[in-house]
Amino acid sequence: MTIASYVFLIIGGLFFLLGGLGVLRMPDTFNRIQAGTKATTLGAFSTLIGVGLGNLDWAFKIVLIIVFIVISNPIGSSAIAKATYKSKQIPDNLVQDELANRGDAK
Amino acid sequence: MKYLATFLVMFVVYLFLAGFTLDEVILGSIVSAALTLILVKFVDFRIDWKFPWKLVKFVFVYLPLFIWKLIVANFDVARRVLTPKIPLNPGIVKVKTNLKGDFGKLTLANSITLTPGTLSIDVEDDYIYVHTVDVKGQNEEENRKNISEPFEKVLGGIFK
Fold first, then answer.
1. What's the CA gap between A80 and A29, in Å, rounded?
2. Is the confidence at residue B116, as pLDDT, over 60?
3. Contact A18/B73, CB-based, under 8 Å?
């Protein structure tokens, strides 16, 4: 059990590392948000499962924390993306932009 | 009815956080009752008799698909990040959804955000605006197939 817990913690750490690397390396805001959201969500999952396996008393709390993270993490990133678009920080590498066709996109 | 639903939600969350002992059940019911009286004006929880069945479907049909997609998404991010020249072909596309309820749309948009190479930016009426790392489809229908089809099918059975 302890070994499984450590394995999950290390995997979680690796995903966080990849997420951080993604935020650094991606060229524009939207792609950075993408890399950040996915990697941190799975990283948090994995880390929390590792903690939960290490101390089984916390299992229910961990489940609840995971539920909150999985609801709030994508909402947060959508909100940032929307704010980015509304403040016209639109990267010029988009090959297609259907939000621009919408009436209130100005 | 409304009071009961709010109370149940508060109570379950409380017990999950505090643990399942008799003390906590007693204190939890008092706290939840007090919170219910305060919060009932602001929230809108209703009792839905199909809820347990929906929850079972949600956990056993939707969650495995979701977790699988999340893992795929992470390896996709890892591949892109570790490639010396990052492969990108980004764009914002519009995806139509058939889900009607707010909660269904929220779940769909969240799922899209956490699947490989996509990020939902905005939801408007029946359309979700999605930023994709790699635009593949030529028209709306193809994009829909690539981005939201698997989730739509599963969530359609749960949320309508």
1. 9
2. yes
3. no
